């Protein structure tokens, strides 16, 4: 009993002493999140006794920052919190008007800055003109169906469809859904709107094969391709030039 009392007394003493007071956080250099944002998320006043701090809530608050995928915090005596952060990795650039967002594998729009614009230059770009996109901001999340379709179509390259184009461009709108075009401008392929059940993005590989077959041997004459599903599609030829009189 005396041992228990002594132990409790020691614990109380550590929790009450000023010798182990929080004075600083050790935070790594981050690409998408400022030190100030991490310190604000920690939210622990200087001078707080480290033995009174529970790290799990701190980790949750830091992980809630848009650019953070995972956070770990540990106490380092006598006065420091050590923060380890895994940042989100961009797989797509999402264009809404002049704005460019970086999107990770979870569909989180996690960065919009000059650095983000530079990173976006090497990523597939989805140009979104849907009405809902006008309200997008850092920290928002794409719905899973939109993200799935964007990843599948954004990964396409001209060789996948037997095209001679330099590159492919992907757009999405309320009127036509996902559309793939070319640069230089040549033809458009309407892939359409997708839903979780009635028209899943899982049909996209079949649509891509159908597009390849419709372009084969006639790409230069095609203006538009409509891809209803993996088996049904049609194309509209470019107008025949009228010879000069």
Describe this structure as you would to a colleague.
By secondary structure, the protein is α/β, with parallel strands linked by helices. It has two domains: 68 residues, Roll (Ubiquitin-like (UB roll)), CATH 3.10.20.310; 146 residues, Rossmann fold (3-Layer(aba) Sandwich), CATH 3.40.50. It is 25% helix and 27% strand. The protein has six helices and twelve strands. The chain has a nine-stranded mixed sheet with strand order 6-5-4-7-8-9-10-11-12, with helices on both faces. α2 crosses α3. It is elongated. The termini are far apart. The N terminus is likely disordered.
Assign the structural class, choosing from mainly alpha, mainly beta, alpha/beta, alpha+beta, or little secondary structure.
Answer: alpha/beta
Order of helices and strands: HEHHEEEEEHEHEEEHEE
What fraction, in percent, of the residue positions are helical? Answer: 25-40%
What is the overall shape?
elongated
Measure the end-to-end span. Answer: 112 Å
- Low-confidence residue ranges: 2-15
Count all strands and give the number: 12
The total number of structural domains is 2
CATH topology of the largest domain: Rossmann fold
Chain-wise SSE layout:
Layout: H1 2-16, E1 24-26, H2 35-42, H3 55-63, E2 68-76, E3 80-87, E4 92-96, E5 99-103, E6 109-111, H4 114-120, E7 125-128, H5 144-154, E8 167-173, E9 177-183, E10 188-192, H6 204-215, E11 222-227, E12 233-237
Parallel strand pairs: 1-3, 4-7, 7-8, 10-11
Antiparallel strand pairs: 2-3, 4-5, 5-6, 8-9, 9-10, 11-12
């Amino acid at each position: 009993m005396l041992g228990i009392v002594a132990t409790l007394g020691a614990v109380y003493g550590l929790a009450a002493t000023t010798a182990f007071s929080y004075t600083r956080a050790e935070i790594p250099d981050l690409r998408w999140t400022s030190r100030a944002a991490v310190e604000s998320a920690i939210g622990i006043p200087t001078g707080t006794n480290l033995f009174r701090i529970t790290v799990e809530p701190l980790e949750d608050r830091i992980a809630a920052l848009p650019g953070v995928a995972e956070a770990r915090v540990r106490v380092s005596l006598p006065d420091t919190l050590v923060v380890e952060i895994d940042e989100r990795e961009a797989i797509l650039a999402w264009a809404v008007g002049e704005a460019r967002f970086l999107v990770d594998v979870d569909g989180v729009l996690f960065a919009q800055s000059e650095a983000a614009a530079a990173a976006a230059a090497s990523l597939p770009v989805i140009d979104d003109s849907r009405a809902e996109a006008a309200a997008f901001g850092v920290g928002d999340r794409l719905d899973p169906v939109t993200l799935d379709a964007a990843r599948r179509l954004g990964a396409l390259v001209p060789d996948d469809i037997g095209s001679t184009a330099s590159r492919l461009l992907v757009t999405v709108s309320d009127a036509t859904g996902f559309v793939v075009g070319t640069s230089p401008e040549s033809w458009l392929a309407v892939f359409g709107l997708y839903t979780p059940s009635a028209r899943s993005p899982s049909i996209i590989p079949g649509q891509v094969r159908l597009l390849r077959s419709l372009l084969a041997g006639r790409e230069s004459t095609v203006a538009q391709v409509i891809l209803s599903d993996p088996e049904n599609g049609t194309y509209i030829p470019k107008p025949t030039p009228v010879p000069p009189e």
